[in-house]
Amino acid sequence: MLRVLDDGHPVGFATREALQLPPDERVVEHVVPFKRIIVEIVDPRQADPRSNTNRGPIAGGPATSPEQLLSIFDRLLQKCWVTTDEHDRLNRAGRSLQWDAPDGDGWARYRLAEVVAYPVT
User: Which among 24, 45, 80, 121 would be 20 to 30 A from 64, CA to CA?
Assistant: First the structure.
């Protein structure tokens, strides 16, 4: 179900390098990792303590209704086109294998990996 919701959201950010690639060579990256969005929907207390100073919810989770699930998903989902190299750097950037948006800041690992994204208009 969440994959269908994800597919319905457009990509809102991109790196300059990714925009120079043909569309089929771009990697779609979730600013707040998809795993972290699911954790927020199901049980925010399960967030990885290595990258969170607060074990509370970052977007009002857990979801107790379909409407709340959609609200959390819409609030946390941001997608970014990156290159394969940038994607690899982003996944190695953090303290946690999950790297689940420290305290809700999905852009933290972009800063740490020195990957700069811009809004796509």
Answer: 80
